[in-house]
Amino acid sequence: MEKNNHPQTTRREFIARGLYGAMGLALAKGLATRALGDDALRIGRAQGAPSASAGKAKSVIQIWLWGGPPHLDTFDPKPDAGREYCGPYGKALATNVNGIQICPALPLLAKMADKYSLLRGMTHGNNGHETAAYLVQTARKPGGDLVYPGVGAITSYFKGTNGGYKGLLPPYITLTEPQGRFSENGFLTSKYKPFSTGGDPSKDPFVVEGITAQITPERQKDRRVLLGEIDSFSKSMADNSMVRSLESSQQQAYEMILGDAGKAFVLSEEKDEVRDRYGRTKFGQSCLLARRLVGLGVPFITINHQGWDTHKQNFETMSKKLPELDRALSSLLQELSDRGLLSSTIVWVSGEFGRTPRVQWEAPWMGGRGHYGKAFSALVAGGGFRGGTVVGKTDARGENVTERPIYPWDLLDSMYELLAIDRHAKLNAPQGETVCVSPLASGEIPAKETGGLLKEIM
To answer: Considering only CA atoms, which of 74, 70, 66 is closest in space to residue 358?
Structure first.
């Protein structure tokens, strides 16, 4: 038998080699990320971008009612249309702003209509989930060779590290999972794709992918100490620039996990009465978490709130979804206002479209509503948007926009204006094409298909 000349590896050396391997992978990943960032600057460099401090808004909280909320059952009630259209919501609820009424299932929001505005003239005419979601979030019509970045990725590009953001947390965060309806970063590199937390913030602990784990902070600190004890390699290579870079990245990673940045996800630090006010649901605690992230300066947060695709038994679903929305959204708006954050934070509540105004009472729908992109509603607040106003109007049955149509590009351009993002800035796509941030700025949209910026509330 041939003699094995390799020396026996001790347990400590084995652990060290494993850690060095992991460190090497981390370093490679870090270098790759930096390369992607440089590539993104080459591909998507904007010309003449304004300073990050020029606008009123610093952050956006997008509450995406995934599947399409019924506008008649939320922000554009039609009580005179009868049961065929409004079902059990035969009365509208007056708000604290004279002349504005909303669905009676939203009593808490009714008490603070002065803090938000309703966009009842939203329209685009697209009834497909994927294509309508792409349209609303990119302000680009589906089709063509280019896949455009969504508003979150654009905001991340201009207001993230390129715009002076120095936070340890990613500049674009999704609570708690991506939609999967479209590519959020489009032709921009993966650096501008949102970080999705996963998990459920109503659970304790809230396990965030890559940041928190189901072990105690004390054990994490012990692991860090062990790594320091056995890391003779780094000590002997202290003058090496790559090792120093790795140690810096390691320090940032530990700060994210164990420092103040990671604590943003520890909702148990909030008082019980605060958590109860939002509702101890996945959505309610996501709204609370969004408030905490805005407090740390994160530029764009999306809350993907599922369950609004109500083809069947719409009103049974609304009896659960509307109180949850009412409780969490009203708490979010109130806390942002109380903490002085609402003036610098845009809150945008919408789905990809509305629902058919006429209820499908027949089997198998049993009171369902279909997709409806011809007319729908959105809510906006903060960041320079004035509250207590309704923009746009639909007819007596909510079927057609009759006054002040608002297209997706009108809304997103208004948000870019408040964020001080130059709508005329150029983005260089991979195929060599140069396009503007806004399709309005580039002349892609016919004049008859725009209602203009939301100057009524800006």
So the answer is: 70
Q: pTM of the full predicted structure? A: 0.82
Q: Are 408 and 136 in contact (CB under 8 A)?
A: yes
Q: Is 158 left (phi over 0), alpha (psi -120 to 50) or beta?
A: alpha
State the virtual CA torsion across 119, 120, 121, 122 in degrees, nearest 10.
70
**Domain residue spans of the chain:** 16-45+216-264, 50-212+272-457
pLDDT tens per residue, the chain (458 residues)?
444 444 444 444 433 444 334 433 343 344 334 333 433 333 333 333 443 335 799 999 999 999 999 999 999 999 999 999 999 999 999 999 999 999 999 999 999 999 999 999 999 999 999 999 999 999 999 988 899 999 999 999 999 989 999 998 999 999 999 988 888 999 999 999 999 999 999 999 898 876 655 555 555 555 545 545 555 555 565 566 664 555 554 555 545 555 667 788 999 999 999 999 999 999 999 999 999 999 999 999 999 999 999 999 999 999 999 999 999 999 999 999 999 999 999 999 999 999 999 999 999 999 999 999 999 999 999 999 999 999 999 999 999 999 999 999 999 999 999 999 999 999 988 878 889 999 999 999 999 999 999 999 99
DSSP code at position 55: S
Query: Which pair of tokens denotes residue 249?
Result: 């990245």
Hey, what amino acid is at 84? E
Please give the Cα distance from 53 to 415 (Å, whole number). 15
Cβ pair 367, 316 in contact under 8 A: yes
Q: Are 422 and 48 contacting, i.e. CB atoms less than 8 angstroms apart? A: yes
List CB contacts of 285: < 8 A, sequence separation 6 or more.
200, 201, 202, 206, 267, 275, 278, 279
Q: Is the peptide bond before 88 cis (omega within 30 degrees of 0)?
A: no
The shares of helix, strand and coil residues in the chain, as percent rounded to the nearest 5, are 40, 15, 45
Q: Please state, as a whole number, how many other Cβ atoms lie within 10 Å of the Cβ of residue 26.
A: 14
Residue 186, classed as helix, strand or coil, is: coil
Measured over the CA atoms of residue 228, residue 234, residue 239 and residue 243, the dihedral's sign is negative
Phi and psi dihedrals of 237, rounded to 5? -115, 35
Superfamily of the domain at 50-212+272-457: Alkaline Phosphatase, subunit A (3.40.720.10)
